[in-house]
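Lecture notes, unit on protein representations.

Consider one protein chain, 121 amino acids long.
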Amino acid sequence: QVQLVESGGGLAQSGGSLRLSCAASGSILSINDMGWYRQAPGKQRDLVAVITRGGRTNYADSVKGRFTISRDNAKNTVYLQMNSLKPEDTAVYYCNARNVVNTSFRVADYWGQGTQVTVSS
């Protein structure tokens, strides 16, 4: 069983910063991609940023230059540093781990439970 546990969400003012963390635990051999998605009320869940095991990153246009994704492979943890926050960044942020290989050599994708980020103007 693999679990993703997010932390770091909360309330920030416009222009402020927050840092999200997501730790994967369980019988894990390796994780390919780790990423962050977000979902605002009444909207679909969209990609925010993703990072491969080798460190290659991809960002949504709306967060480029403001958000930075990073990971610690030894800790199976991914981070999202969010700077210059805007009210439109308000959403529930979900951690995603893709192509997780467990100790039984099964491969699956997993989601965290979500953490609320609210940016006030």
